[in-house]
């Protein structure tokens, strides 16, 4: 027996998910990260208390800010759903920004023309389908390479993202250009034809699409036979072959579903918020969502919580950036510090458990 | 009497709910090979972990040269001259042998190749350790990699060398080679601890035998005692100590007469090219219900490929019929539903999904099937849990709970889980690949009993094994594989051993 399974057959003591453990592994690193970020702010001679207060007010406690936060969550949740699907199946689809953008651009190109011929109730689902197809198609190349040639999908999806961003730009500037404007952008979908807002608010109903997407993926992965197959492939591909699963077919299915969800994220953003796609527009939401999904440990419910927290930071941070002169990407600095703090806490917790057993 | 190099007194280690070591005494003498025997979970690994600084004892003393010591870490153990070679190799495959040997040095120092090469050359002289210092560790055979680990232990001044099931992954010839090396090391004055599952090996290489059971040391056989009685008597004594009762005779069995029933599994002309491997060359075989067909041969002569082709994991030329029906076009799942099962020899990496619960591992080959999943594909966790509870009881799987990740179980208990998975339901033909590989005596016996019980119940059995004793103990007919071919098939019986040996070395059976 190797050193790693030395406690064979003994019920390894595992401290229960008690309050102490929750504080140690979750709350403490969050507080530490906020304090460390405060220190950085102080070094930039910005009052950290004022910054955090402003972020909270503009992102959470004011009605206007909360509505913006909830609207921002919509595409992020769709992307989180896309990533959870792929990551749980052991496939590192890092190409969601490209899939997102192509979905967005095709919706930008088709939404306004379709709105002139179709009723809204038909146009919106059709646009979402178009975006899903675009995202799935863009994920198909890495999927085929991975499934049949074993090419590392981390590399291919990243490459396809670069190509996707460029292709999206080319499409906007050359093909889907709105001739009525001087800036290169697609035709703008009239506000009345966009995704309806939730009653009595300006919150885009894309939020519902996002929440449903995350919960649906979570359900599929934990409760269905399809999800179980994907988890076997993701955890031990050899065991999957041994159990008679078709690894190539499942790989392609996961990539297409993941790409489709990323494409839908693009549709939700264009149909709910932007109304069109400008040239060189790339919010790079994917890069922000990847760490959140890791923090949530690929758990859908936890991902919703983290996406909500990030959206507060993001919306509040954008306002604070204008008011207090902090760069708007400071939100990402806070998230990065938080990620490192949580990873450290997990490491410490792991060491502590090893010592006690 | 000379002073032991390392001795332990009253060593005790408790885990929640289990006393892994309970007042263990042990004395390791220089120049002696001390064999440590015990079932899985008897506490061998815990004892070794405490000697090498991976675990701290709850009570008792560890004495090095008569002085009590606290071994706080593996580094400390190495400093005191205690080194361990594990069953899985701990070398960096992408580094050369010399670089691996230099890994313990401070990070800023350059590896002194000349010095390492000189030391290796000296070892070649003294101990017949023959490894090229410039070879990549990953290119070496398992036996050679173990030699590198032993060389590393010696270079760091190791005086106590622990071999933790070091022979379990070696070929018989490799194990003999390692045994000879152990004897040379002992002759140099090292104290050797040799842990093995194989009684034969233990007696061939060891001087003194200690037996652990349920965390206690239940007996020690001194060199004089072992020398004074025949080997069979010693074996019976050890088996008696390990299990608390005499189960030695339960292992023998006589083959049954040839089955009168028509074959249920027929494979004809299976051929397969495998890049870098032997593949399969025109392999044909038949098995009748209730019959055990043993497939003997040295590992790597096409046995794995044959098993995978029969199970549906690989596609080969030729034809396979199950109960008269051609199944060549069917995949693993469809063949399984028709009653064809395959027990893999790699329970850790292929047979189980380590992080998944024990309960889930019982059904990884039935994903989507009733009653565990509904027609709509929704999981029924209570059905899976109930099935797992039943299997755990039926197959005597020792696990804290069915929700425990299976990777935490010992090899023997993992094997019970995958045996249960292959034998439940409508099993008509079962292919076993090295079913008792790496298991201790009790689990080996339990596994063989399961295989025979299934065969008695009418299961057609293909038993692939590199352990000739196992083949002879269980089979009705024995086929011998060599270089991807079946070179001959003989009925089991008194002359079978000689006939199989002849076939294995390429002589035509008389």
Brief rundown of the structure:
The complex is a heterodimer of chains A (357) and B (510). Chain A is mainly α and 357 residues long.
Structure description:
- The complex is a heterodimer of chains A (357) and B (510).
- Chain A contains 13 helices and no strands.
- In chain A, helix 7 packs across helix 8 and helix 11 packs parallel to helix 13.
- Chain A has helices at residues 19-43, 48-61, 63-88, 96-117, 120-149, 153-175, 206-223, 225-235, 237-242, 247-274, 285-295, 300-324, 330-356.
- Chain B is an alpha/beta fold and 510 residues long.
- Chain B has helices spanning 44-51, 74-79, 97-101, 113-127, 142-155, 172-187, 199-205, 223-228, 231-243, 303-311, 332-337, 347-351, 358-361, 381-394, 411-423, 441-456, 468-474, 496-504, and strands at 6-15, 18-28, 33-37, 59-64, 67-69, 82-85, 160-164, 191-195, 208-213, 216-221, 265-272, 280-287, 292-296, 317-322, 325-326, 340-343, 429-433, 460-464, 477-482, 485-491.
- In chain B, helix 15 packs parallel to helix 16.
- Chains A and B meet through helix 8 and helix 9 of A and helix 1, helix 11 and helix 12 of B.
- Chain A: It is found in: Cell membrane.
- Chain A: It is a multi-pass membrane protein.
- Chain A: GO terms for molecular function: transmembrane transporter activity.
- Chain A: Pfam families: BPD_transp_2 (PF02653).
